[in-house]
């Protein structure tokens, strides 16, 4: 299992692509832990890890936008993965977990490659905050990606 502080730091500094990559990493980790729970006949651990996988799948589904072929394909994959983990839970079948891992591994690898190709400038959001004075008032402003907003 990953160190919690390390994960918190990665999430806090990640861009959108890196967040998706982290979700896939978390899903793979929970699937592996679920497989161990099946083998060791640990019902509570199995339920916990399967629920974590379902939570990640729900978030991935919720963040899909549009009706493109890629979005439609990913929806189908996420629904299939949910079926696999449900079968693994109900039948206590580690082969269903293996099947799910085989499905997500190439997608996870693709997201990791995409994250690596992003330039260092894209890794961190450009946010600048400042205070200005105006007619007896102190105002704060925030700029995100060259867009000024009142704070």
TrEMBL record:
It comes from the Bacteria. CDD domains: FliS (cd16098). PANTHER family: FLAGELLAR SECRETION CHAPERONE FLIS. NCBIfam families: fliS. Signal peptide: none annotated. It is found in: Cytoplasm, Cytosol. This is Flagellar export chaperone FliS. Keywords: Bacterial flagellum biogenesis, Cell projection, Chaperone, Cilium, Cytoplasm, Flagellum. InterPro entries: FliS, FliS_sf. GO terms for cellular component: cytosol. GO terms for biological process: bacterial-type flagellum assembly; bacterial-type flagellum-dependent cell motility. Pfam families: FliS (PF02561). The lineage of its organism: Bacteria, Bacillati, Bacillota, Clostridia, Peptostreptococcales. Belongs to the FliS family. Gene3D superfamilies: Flagellar protein FliS.
